[in-house]
From TrEMBL:
Enzyme class label: lyase
Protein name: Methylisocitrate lyase
Record carries keyword Cell wall biogenesis/degradation: no
InterPro entries: ICL/PEPM (IPR039556), Isocitrate_lyase_ph_CS (IPR018523), PrpB (IPR012695), Pyrv/PenolPyrv_kinase-like_dom (IPR015813), Pyrv_kinase-like_dom_sf (IPR040442)
GO terms of molecular function: metal ion binding; methylisocitrate lyase activity
Enzyme Commission numbers on file: 4.1.3.30
Function: Catalyzes the thermodynamically favored C-C bond cleavage of (2R,3S)-2-methylisocitrate to yield pyruvate and succinate.
Length: 304
């Protein structure tokens, strides 16, 4: 039954694996999962981790990414995803859902949910999607207080606290580098600089910041889509693909629904659908059947 109803790997071991991955010299690839089933697929394919995007949690609730989701909603989605995978899960905790004390509580709640790490950003609350205009950032000092509160609440020292900065498009690269170094001094284990544009900007950031760095390779945003091998050669430690699986799924779902609407049948879509047998394989139906048979394979005897 181990690893069947829940991940075989403990939350502590997943956090230790994430922490070790940051200094392994191999870039840690974290595709976004919009559901536990997608997380299972990410693990099966062989990635190093799973990412839970705040923008995706919002979109899945049919809400824009403007700070409308709650800690409860985000933590529960993270818990559902962390439950099914042996991979470390990194989750988007927005601005910490309030003031520094709220950021501290956020860390404790996410630890309890089995998450391996979270990122907190320096936007003004409520936040905006990182690739939209109209963002505003708090002062460096305010973000340092946010981070110190989060670090103080950490019980497992391997829980990774990542500081995201959205200052590049507002204050420029040099000021953002200063922020990143201040965030590292405040206890951040990992720095995520949003909306860098080119390989040269990623290189400049790597040269100026000593602690591990995360690259966001989201589609249709401001950043050039840089291959993981290139990011690794630059010296980046983690890369996320936050919305890719949702975009792939929604594109396919919309195309299929339109065809059903127009033709009255899904017969022409079968070659674009996951087969029932493949779904059953991913869900491990056979293993559940064996488990059920082992539990209930018995006979009763009557007293003579």
């Amino acid at each position: 039954m181990t690893g069947l109803l829940a991940a075989a790997t403990s939350a502590a071991d997943k956090r230790a694996a994430f922490r070790a991955g940051l200094t392994s010299g191999t870039i840690q690839r974290f595709p976004g999962a919009f559901s536990p089933l997608v997380a299972a697929l990410i693990q099966e394919i062989g990635f190093e981790g799973v990412y839970v995007s705040g923008a995706v949690v919002s979109a899945d609730l049919a809400l824009p990414d403007i700070g409308l989701t709650t800690l409860t909603e985000v933590a529960e989605r993270g818990r559902q995803i962390a439950r099914v995978t042996d991979l470390p899960v990194l989750i988007d905790a927005d601005t910490g859902f309030g003031e520094p004390m709220s950021a501290a509580r956020t860390v404790s709640i996410l630890e309890d949910a089995g998450i391996a790490g979270c990122h907190l950003e320096d936007q003004v609350n409520p936040k905006r999607c990182g690739h939209l205009d109209g963002k505003a950032v708090v002062t460096t000092e305010a973000m340092v207080r946010r981070l110190r509160a989060a670090v103080s609440a950490r019980r497992d020292p391997n829980f990774v606290i990542c500081a995201r900065t959205d200052a590049a498009g507002i204050e420029g690269i040099d000021a953002t580098i200063d922020r990143a170094n201040a965030y590292g001094d405040a206890g951040a284990d990992l720095i995520f600089t949003e909306a860098l544009r080119t390989v040269a900007e990623f290189e400049k950031f790597r040269a100026a910041v000593s602690i591990p760095l995360l690259a966001n390779m989201t589609e249709f945003g401001r950043s050039e889509l840089i291959p993981a091998a290139t990011l690794q050669s630059i010296g980046y430690n983690v890369v996320i693909y936050p919305v890719s699986t949702l975009r792939l799924a929604m594109f396919a779902a919309e195309a299929g629904l339109r065809e059903i609407f127009e033709h009255g049948t899904q017969a022409g879509l079968l070659d674009r659908m996951q087969h029932r047998s493949r779904l059953y394989e991913l869900l491990r139906y056979e293993a559940y059947n064996e488990f059920d048979a082992d539990i209930f394979d018995f006979t009763t005897r009557r007293n003579p």
